[in-house]
Structures are given as C-alpha cells and as structure tokens.
Amino acid sequence: MAEHMNTPLPHWEKSGNVMWVSCRSCREWFPCAAELVSQNKIELVCPHCAACFKPADAADTMNP
Amino acid sequence: MTCENPPIELSSYLLSLGRAVFQTAHSLSVVQEITALQHLLGRAGRYPVIHVPQPRLVDGRTSEIGLVTNLCASRELMAHALSISDHRECARTFASRASTGIAPVDVGRGQAPVQQLVAQGGDIDLRQLPALRQHVFDVGHYVTAGHCSTIEPDSGADNTSIQRCWVKGQRLLSFFPYSGSHNARNVEKFWARGEPCPVAIWIGHHPAVVIGSQAKLAYPESHWSAAGGIAGQSIRMVPTITHGDRLKVPADAEIVIEGWIPPHRLEADGPFAEYPGYVGVQIATPVIEVTCLTRRREAILHDFGGGLEDHLIPENMAMEGKVYTLVKPVAPTLINVHVPFSGRRFHAYLQFRDPPRGEVRDALMAALAYRRLRTVVAVDEDIDIFDDRSVLWAMSTRVQWHRDTIEADGLTHGNLDPSLPLGATTVTKLGIDATLPPAPAYGLPKPVAPRNAVSDSALAAAAKALKEVDMTGWPST
Ligand SMILES: [Zn+2]
Questions:
Q1: pLDDT tens, A5-58?
Q2: B224 and B364 together in one domain
C-alpha cells in the first residue's frame, strides 16, 4: 500500500476529509470513510465492479 | 377535517395534477437515466412530477411496478399539495399546523390498500422493485424515499424518518440513520439489550403526508399527529404484518417493507450521491433483514433524486417551520424564513419587519442553534428571501463584517458537510445581520440612502408596453 500520509497543517490551511481507495480487483478509485479503512474490520464494496475486499487488501489508498 | 374525508394517497394526487405530471413515453433504465431526466429538467428550470410507468430493470425486463420521482421538486406543487396558497407562506403554516396536530386513526387490514398484496419469506424479492442506481459512484440500487419507522423501546413511541436503503439482495437492505438521529438512538437502545430492532419502511404517499411526517419533533415523539395536522386530516394507520400493533404504517402508502435490524451487524454502505450535492463516501451501516413486503396491486415506487431539488425541497420546507418556531419567541418582528436550495440545508434567510436594536442578533443566535444550519442571514422586509440575488445584494450593501457578523465555534452540525475537517465533531457557524439600522423614531425614514426605484404608475405603463410581446430570442442573462 502506498503511503500518502497526513502532514499536520496550520489551522488557516484547508484540508480534506475523505479517504480514497483503489479497488483490489479493478483498481478504480472510490471515496471511503477514513475510519472504515483504519479499522480494517468490514469488507469494502467497489462501486465500479462490486468486488468485496478488506481495506488492507486495497490496491492503494490515499489519505485526506 | 377528520378521516371522514376520502383518504389522501399518491395515485389520486397524481391524477389531480394534470399537466404538472410528465409521464414518460420512452422506456428509461433504472440506472441513471431517470435521474438524468431530473438533472436536465432542473437545468431548464422545470420541475414536473415524473411518472415512469414501465421502468427498465437492469436485466432488461420491464418492471411490474411503476416509478414516480420529482414528486417534491417544486415548492409551488408542494404548497398546492398542502393547500397553502403561496409556497412563501410555508414557515408560518408549518409552525402552526405542526403544533396543533390531528391524531391518527387505526384501520384494519381490509381497509389498508398497502396490504392488498403480501409477500413473506422466500416470496420476497426486493430486486424486483425499480429502485434506482441514480448517479456515478452510487454503489447500487437504493430505496431513496423509504420512510423508516422504528420504536423507542421504553415508551413504545414510534419514529419515522427518510433514510436511504441499498437493495443488497433478495431480502437484505442497508439502513443509514444519521448518527444521533431518533432512529439511530432507537436502534442503539435495542442493541444495548442485545435485541434486534423492529423496522418498517413505508414508501409512496400523498406529498402532504411525505412532508408532514418530516416535522421536527422531540424525542421520543410519534410523528403521526403532526403529520395529520400538516396534511389537514388524520393519517390512517394499519398494524404491520411482522410487528402487529407494536409498529404501524400508513394504510394508504404504496409499498411497505418490514423486518428487523440485527444487533451490531454493520456492513459497507455507499458511496451514494447525497443532499449537499457531493457523493457520500462508503461507510459502515446497519442492515435490515426483510421479513415481509406488502403493497398495493398497482403500486408505484416513490424515488427522491439524491441531492436534487426533489430531495431537498420537502425537508427544507419542514425546516422553515421549525426555524420559525425556534426564532419567533425571541424575535417577535420575524415575519418569514426561507431555507434555500442553493444552501442545501446549511443556510437560512430570516426576514424582519422593523426589528428593534438587538433583536436580530438574538434571532441569529436562536437560529444558529438549529443543528443543520451553518449560516443564517437576517434581512429586512424589502428583501425577497426567495431570491438569492436579493439576499446577496443586502449582504453586499448592508453589512460591515466586523460589526454585523456573529461567529460561534463548537456547535452541533448536520452530517455530510463536505468542508468539515477530518475528525471535527463540531463546527463554526456564522450569523449575518444584513438589515438596515433602525429609524431614530417611529414614522421617520431609516438613516440610510433610499434604494433606487421607479413609481408604481411607471411600472404599470411599462407592463402595458410589454403585454403580449413575443420575447423569444431575447437574451435571458
Ligand atoms: Zn472494482
């Protein structure tokens, strides 16, 4: 999994709030709640190809 | 009025609308095509009710069940459905009708059109419903206008609220009550006891009942009396097949899905295009194990176009009543409220008639306490709060930002705010006083330059000159 880690930003700079996940099967990206990825308990469902996979098995992830 | 009037329902309402209904002659797919029609019509500034008698399912077959969408996209039509002569009167009317209420009445199964057909167990197949997959990124087909009813286990009071439900299988739905919502609290209480939560989802009704059931109430408090008050007649209720008298549903709805929410079972739900106009990301939500599906013989599935006027207008109109109720006691000079589609559910415009010093700021504080609102703008009576340009003009000409704004941190907020920093549990809200300073004494002009104007007689003469002129081809912007 690639690392796109958060860097602490000063409060006047904008930051995002959505994590993106690249599907294990089709590799397309979709937005996902960050806690769903960090907890790694529930299988994600790809909206592009319907593949189900644990967050740890994603092709890639992108932090906010 | 009482229940002696003919019961209000969706199909007879559609028949009453005449040309305000667009019945599609083309076969449209449940995958994005019907929603695309809403997008195109909205861009053209047109909001007919859209009736698709024969939606095309994913496998190419025609659905036995028709679909209606854009039912609530027009403020004018919603006001008509509520017997309000002008949609701009909604705030006061809602506030008054919701507080008076009309009690529901119970009917037996024989008088309940929604239970004409009953499927249980293996006979249920939710995939036969023409549930739409509306937008790019939507993970699947959703029941979007499902009013999910649950029970508060201690008092037995029911709650009903619109929640999106992903059709996950033959007898399985997702269920997304916002955190802190009354349905979410009910589910948590059952789960704390280790019990499944009973649930029934009613779909499709006269829009007065749809909007009436969205009145904002205390917890726990059943919605049916307020809904009857807003609709102008008693809502006819029938016990569910699965839960009996414990959980009732509107007898004149189109479709009801009954089941249980099993304890602590969470599954992925979304992405789904949500009300702020952005995609709601994939999250974990409870599921519903479906036990029974009842419907009318000629049932119509009601759909809300996610994030479109159709989705926002009814809720926003209900919000106007609630905000009016919150603010009026502290600000008697409040005369109207608008929750504009342009601000989704985050903005409200308050209109005042000659407020004394301090009252507008009191009103801003009261309105900002409403969870979903993030920005509240106060204006005078001469500003049209149903025209964003008019409100922006007041903001650009009557506000000194250091003097006329109130910023408050750490307040509760609505979910799905796309601008919220990750991990934030509260938000900063803004109140803007865009009213003019008060006159020094009654009867004197306000101490500011007057606005540009032409006389009424000049306007009448101009209107006469334009009468029956063909304006086709004239630039509109
Ligand atoms: Zn995929």
A1: 456 778 788 888 899 999 999 999 999 999 999 999 999 999 999 999 999 999
A2: no
Q: Look at chain B and report how many structural domains it folds into.
A: 2
Among A2, A8, A11, A4, which residue's Cα sits nearest to residue A58?
A2
Residue B366, amino acid: A
Tokens of B85: 């002569």
Q: Minimal Cα–Cα distance from A50 to chain B, Å?
A: 8
* Chain B residues contacting A via beta carbons under 8 Å: 137-140, 266-268, 271, 279, 281-284, 418, 420-422
pLDDT digits (tens, 9 = 90+) for B193-210: 999 999 999 999 999 999
Q: What is the pTM of this model?
A: 0.92
Same domain, B243 and B174: yes
| Phi, psi values for residue A20, rounded to 5° | -110, 145
Cα-based distances in Å from B281 to A47, A63, B91: 11, 13, 32
User: pLDDT tens for residues B226-279?
Assistant: 899 999 999 999 999 999 999 999 999 999 999 999 999 999 999 999 999 999
- Contacts of B396 by beta carbon, 8 Å cutoff, 6+ apart: none
pLDDT tens-place string over residues B149-179 = 999 999 999 999 999 999 999 999 999 998 8
B128 and B160 in a single domain? The answer is yes
Q: Which of chain B's residues have a Cβ under 8 Å away from the Cβ of A17?
A: 418, 420-422
Rounded to an integer, the average pLDDT of B418-426 is: 86
CA distance B371 to B161: 16
DSSP per residue, B325-354 = HHHTTT-TTEEEEE--GGGTTTEEEEEESS
Query: For B132-267, where are the alpha helices, taking DSSP H only?
Result: 182-192, 207-212, 224-231
| Best residue of B264, B278, B281 to probe chain A, by most A CBs closer than 10 Å | B281
Instruction: Report the SS3 class of residue A31.
Output: strand
Question: Which member of A42, A47, A64 has the closest CB to residue B271?
Answer: A47
Domain count, chain A: 1
Q: Complex ipTM, two decimals?
A: 0.91
Are B100 and B85 within 8 A, CB to CB?
no
Distance CA(A43)–CA(B282), nearest Å, equals: 11
In this structure, are residues B251 and B224 in contact, taking their beta carbons and an 8 Å threshold? no
Q: Would A30 be classed as within a structural domain?
A: yes
Interface test with B, best of A14, A20, A32 (most B CBs within 10 A): A32
| pLDDT band with cut points at 50, 70 and 90 for residue B4 | low
Q: How far is A18 from chain B (nearest CA, A)?
A: 7
Nearest partner of B131 among B272, B323, B12, judged by Cα = B272
